Amino acid sequence: MKVLVTGAKGMLGQDLCPILEDEDFDVIETDIDTLDITNPKNVEEVLSCNKPDIVIHCAAYTNVDKAEEDKETAFKINAEGTKNLAEYCKKTGITLVYISTDYVFDGTKNDKYLTDDKTCPINVYGESKLEGEKAVQECEKYYITRTSWLYGHHGKNFVETMISLKDRDELKVVDDQVGCPTWTVELSNGIVKIIKENLPYGIYHVCGSGYTSWYGFAKKIFELCSLKVNLKPCTTDEFPRAAKRPKNSIMENNKICRKWETALKEYIELRCE
Predict the structure, then answer these.
(1) Mean pLDDT for the chain overall
(2) I want to staple 68 with a disulfide (CB 3.0 to 4.6 A). Which of 23, 181, 242, 254 is the partner?
């Protein structure tokens, strides 16, 4: 089966592509230099030339804070770019897999978010990704995979940021936002599972099982790295950001991914090899 991956050079794409190849998929790697998703003509040219059975759409504008001042670019990539792919996939019967986010929710629910819960993003990034979801849902054959708190060996992420700050006299981390840390390898394996098992088309939450706060996440990182850090919890109000974050980003994943602590332990072990 032939799979075309957008954003193949990104943090997720660099883990996803070799995992797909290990599962005997014929993988076509694309990135901005070979596929401009914001250009409908280029989308048609590349997809018609390669004739994939599945498109896994990893390319995205992911700078959450910058999106607040650069709404046009965020929507051009996350909404319009996704729409261009979706329209071609719908026309040709290609299955489209779209990577979405917990930020489509407002974070006010007092329980885990389910796939059919009402969406209500509170920042521009979340709004742009939700518009992408709506475009994808116009296809007959699609999977929307919402993930959260993503980290991986091939890109800037919370784990690496925390480790880089280990020598500070005091390190404050937000403790009143909770979510599901997710390793890119776990997300990749979850996507492969959904495709290979021919699960019903629709929305899936593909994130680490269980949950923690950013402070709890940082504490576990330092514990697994055997680092003594003067780590202190703080509130969201003490750490203002340009974009609002949901207080609750916990999503029910129906055990598609392993416990977040198990995945993080493996990530740290591989990082230290």
Answers:
(1) 97
(2) 242
Nearest to 219 by CA among 158, 151, 269: 158
Closest CA to 162 of 231, 248, 241, 87: 231
Q: pLDDT tier at 273 (50, 70, 90 boundaries)? A: low
Q: Are 37 and 59 in contact (CB under 8 A)?
A: yes
In Å, how far are 74, 84, 99, 187 from 112, measured between CA atoms?
27, 32, 19, 18
Q: Which of 165, 219, 157 is nearest to 187 (CA)?
A: 157
> How far is the C-alpha of 268 from the C-alpha of 4, rounded, in Å?
30
> Given phi > 0 = left and psi -120 to 50 = alpha, else beta, which region is 46?
alpha
CB 224 within 8 A of CB 264: yes
DSSP code of 187?
Answer: H
- Please report which confidence band the pLDDT of residue 246 belongs to, taking 50, 70 and 90 as the band edges: very high
State the catalytic residues: 125
Burial 112-139 (b: 16+ CB within 10 A, else e): ebeeeeebebbbbbbbbbbbbbebbeeb
Amino acid 101: pLDDT:
98
Please list, in sequence order, all residues whose beta carbon lies within 8 angstroms of the beta carbon of residue 223, skipping any fewer than 6 positions away: none
Q: CA–CA distance from 53 to each of 41, 73, 248 (Å)?
A: 19, 29, 36
End-to-end Cα spacing for the chain:
34
Starting from the edge strand earliest in sequence, which strands make up the sheet with 95-101, in order?
26-29, 2-6, 54-57, 95-101, 142-147, 202-205
Hey, what are 262's tokens?
A: 């198990």
Asked whether the whole model's pTM tops 0.90, one would answer yes
